[in-house]
């Protein structure tokens, strides 16, 4: 039998949880709350009292606003919150939700602020947009608990006054569906779970060297790069996911990583890959399982057909104009990382291309291609996002509409914003979920502004993403690899910078992990490394 040595901080968490729940069983006025409320992520400001309010058995969500997004949310939260029978009659009949703008556009910078007030007379969520209302509903849902002694739903420590807004406007999860295909049902589960932590961006890394599962009608043979006939996304599937995400206040940013990581493009169109790459030692001509990882074959930048295909793909997914197409999101990720230029060394056409353009090294070829994709994205009224290597190679030569996605070295975040570029943080040493040895507390303490003190530069940091690369992840383990560690990143990107005390956060993240499991999200234990299973019997909040 496996034995687990209980750590000091685990004992503290257990004792706090016992004391907290002993209070919960008493519906009389309760002792003042001496710890942060069990809300994740923690709101920007809040106040509370010492009373308990009981919800009526016919509790309702009401609003004067007419919004399908809000109507869907009311239905969703009703079934999330009220999972037990209700016998006792209470006094709180409803929560009223009001927002002032009917504009339901969801983009970078959309207002997600809200206020929440709860007392014996009623409860109200006010917001500027419906998306702020969604965030307020999530907070309200986390304050409602079930009292098994009286078989009724209650809100402890009332009255509540919460004023809240995110610290960063871009708070995401990168999900890789190329290394392992994720069915629509699992994409939806990921989106559901993201909304519980107030994350607002799904960075969909849909295509990589291993597979090309996305339907592109203008070049239909690209779909031949899918793993199988059953591991594909139709354009109708994509539209369904984008809409499902929007109903939860989540933007979907697609990534087509070019020119590297491109072997799957060449399955249907071999001419997209450079001649002679098979003869380069470091450039394998097959992808896993035949040849391990990474698969380094890049696109061939010497051929007009390459630019035709890339241009058509970007036009098709964007619709060629602002906020249209399969992905209305203003940002489009163009990759640009890990380009192995040695794969071009045996190609006669690339050597000729270099001579025609006066290029003397492959880095110039790389830059030429990046400038093409950048210009194409801008022509389609999108802001291009590139991985860090593009900035490190070409720096201030990039159009200022470019956004730098930092993953290799956190110090590049400061370099990028100092150069006037907007940036996103995903440093791999702390925010990569496939690094199973990285625990939640290390992720929690990864401060984006650690070395950035200038307010103007700070304003260029859009936020961050925690990355779920899928070399070893499929539907069997994706959710318990993401959670609960992604919650640490969610709070770092939502809550105030001063909210960084691990001892204060520990009981709350345990509580949030249990909330996830009650909502059908198979989150792993908090106390262990990523994707771990419980070591022994025990209560949810003790693991």
Task: Provide an overview of this structure.
The chain is built from 17 helices and 16 strands. Helix content is 33%, strand content 17%. The longest helix has 18 residues, at 362-379. An eight-stranded mixed beta sheet has the order 1-8-4-5-3-2-7-6. An eight-stranded parallel beta sheet has the order 11-10-9-16-15-14-13-12. The protein is elongated. The model is unreliable at 1-29 (pLDDT under 50). The chain has helices spanning 8-24, 68-81, 130-143, 184-196, 235-246, 265-268, 304-318, 348-357, 362-379, 388-394, 411-418, 428-431, 440-444, 455-459, 478-482, 485-494, 502-518, and strands spanning 45-47, 51-62, 92-99, 114-119, 122-127, 144-147, 152-158, 160-164, 170-176, 201-207, 251-256, 331-333, 383-387, 403-406, 422-425, 461-468. By secondary structure, the protein is α/β, with parallel strands linked by helices.
Task: Spell out the blueprint of helices and strands.
Layout: H1 8-24, E1 45-47, E2 51-62, H2 68-81, E3 92-99, E4 114-119, E5 122-127, H3 130-143, E6 144-147, E7 152-158, E8 160-164, E9 170-176, H4 184-196, E10 201-207, H5 235-246, E11 251-256, H6 265-268, H7 304-318, E12 331-333, H8 348-357, H9 362-379, E13 383-387, H10 388-394, E14 403-406, H11 411-418, E15 422-425, H12 428-431, H13 440-444, H14 455-459, E16 461-468, H15 478-482, H16 485-494, H17 502-518
Parallel strand pairs: 2-3, 3-5, 9-10, 9-16, 10-11, 12-13, 13-14, 14-15, 15-16
Antiparallel strand pairs: 1-8, 2-7, 4-5, 4-8, 6-7
């Amino acid at each position: 039998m496996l034995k687990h040595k209980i750590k000091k901080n685990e004992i503290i968490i257990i004792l706090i949880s016992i004391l907290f729940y002993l209070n919960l069983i008493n519906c009389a006025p309760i002792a003042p709350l001496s710890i942060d409320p069990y809300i994740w992520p923690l709101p920007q400001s809040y106040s509370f009292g010492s009373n308990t309010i009981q919800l009526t058995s016919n509790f309702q969500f009401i609003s004067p606003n007419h919004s399908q997004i809000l109507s869907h949310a009311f239905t969703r939260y009703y079934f999330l919150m009220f999972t037990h029978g209700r016998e006792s009659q209470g006094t709180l009949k409803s929560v009223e939700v009001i927002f002032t703008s009917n504009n339901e556009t969801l983009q970078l910078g959309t207002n997600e602020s809200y206020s929440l007030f709860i007392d014996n007379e009623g409860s109200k969520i006010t917001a500027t947009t419906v998306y702020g209302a969604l965030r307020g509903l999530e907070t309200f849902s986390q304050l409602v608990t079930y009292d098994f002694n009286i078989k009724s739903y209650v809100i402890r420590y009332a009255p509540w006054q919460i004023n809240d807004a995110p610290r960063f406007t871009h708070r995401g999860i990168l999900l890789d569906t190329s290394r392992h295909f994720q069915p629509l049902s699992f994409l939806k589960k990921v989106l559901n779970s993201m909304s519980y932590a107030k994350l607002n961006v799904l960075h969909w890394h849909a295509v990589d060297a291993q597979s090309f599962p996305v339907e592109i009608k203008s070049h239909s043979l690209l779909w031949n790069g899918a793993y199988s006939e059953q591991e594909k996304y139709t354009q109708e599937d994509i539209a369904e996911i984008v809409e499902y995400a929007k109903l939860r206040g989540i933007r979907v940013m697609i990534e087509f990583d070019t020119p590297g990581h491109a072997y799957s493009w060449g399955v249907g169109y071999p001419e997209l890959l450079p001649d002679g790459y098979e003869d380069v030692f470091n450039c394998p001509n097959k992808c896993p399982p035949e040849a391990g990882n990474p698969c380094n074959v890049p696109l061939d930048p010497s051929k007009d057909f390459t630019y035709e295909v890339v241009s058509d793909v970007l036009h098709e997914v964007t619709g060629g104009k602002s906020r249209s197409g399969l992905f209305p999101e203003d940002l489009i990720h163009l990759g640009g990382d890990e380009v192995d230029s040695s794969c071009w060394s045996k190609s006669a056409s690339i050597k000729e291309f270099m001579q025609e353009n006066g290029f003397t090294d492959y880095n110039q070829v790389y830059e030429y291609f990046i400038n093409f994709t950048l210009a194409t994205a801008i022509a389609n009224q999108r802001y291009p996002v590139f991985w860090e290597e593009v900035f490190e190679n070409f720096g201030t030569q990039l159009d200022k509409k470019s956004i730098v996605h930092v993953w290799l070295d956190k110090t590049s975040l400061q370099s990028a914003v100092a150069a006037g570029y907007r940036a996103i943080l995903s440093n791999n040493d702390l925010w990569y979920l496939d690094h199973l040895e990285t625990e939640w507390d290390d992720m929690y303490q990864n401060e984006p502004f650690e070395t950035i003190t200038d307010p103007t530069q700070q304003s260029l940091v859009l936020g961050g993403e925690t990355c779920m690369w899928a070399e070893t992840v499929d539907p069997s383990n994706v959710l318990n690899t993401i959670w609960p560690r992604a919650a640490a990143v969610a709070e770092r990107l939502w809550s105030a910078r001063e909210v960084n005390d691990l001892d204060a956060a520990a009981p709350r993240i345990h509580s949030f992990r249990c909330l996830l499991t009650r909502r059908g999200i198979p989150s792993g234990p908090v106390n262990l490394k990523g994707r771990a299973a419980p070591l022994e019997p025990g209560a949810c909040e003790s693991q």
